[in-house]
Amino acid sequence: MRKEDCFYLGKIVKKHSFKGEVIIKLDTDEPELYRNMESVFVDLGGNLVPFFIERSSLSKGTMLRVKFDDVNSEDEADSIMKSGIYLPLDLLPKLEGTQFYFHEVIGFKVIDANHGEVGVIVNINDTAAQALFEIERGDKEIFIPLIDDFIKKVDREKKEVHVETPEGLIDLYLS
Per CATH, is 3-91 categorized as 2.60.40.2950? Predict the structure, then answer.
């Protein structure tokens, strides 16, 4: 399985017992969706390796206690410590309306209510306090904050995100 075909679910953050159990910190708003998984992919040295789950239980919100098949000791648990956990993209719950996954809208056109076509989303920068659409328009780069009030419609069929930005925001990049 390639990382591009998967989404990041979380990270193994600590051992739970001397029998190889580990705690995974889930990176999700809905941890209960991942309570009864059969398997996950563990990032070991840049390769995604399937690990089958013997049992798991959710504790403390986003912490998932897991006993993997074939991980039966502290030493074996140490070998996967701090590893990323991934699942195939097709296991993501479908979003509707103006909700979307960041990877889903890359390549979508941005249409502004006042400016018309702004450009194409090439990336979503979520490293700052406020996530931003990174939009390419010819040789210019335009940044629009991902603010719910700005996003009016996500048209998955036409691959368009319709926005209504404050007056002057897009002009900053075009002048």
Answer: no
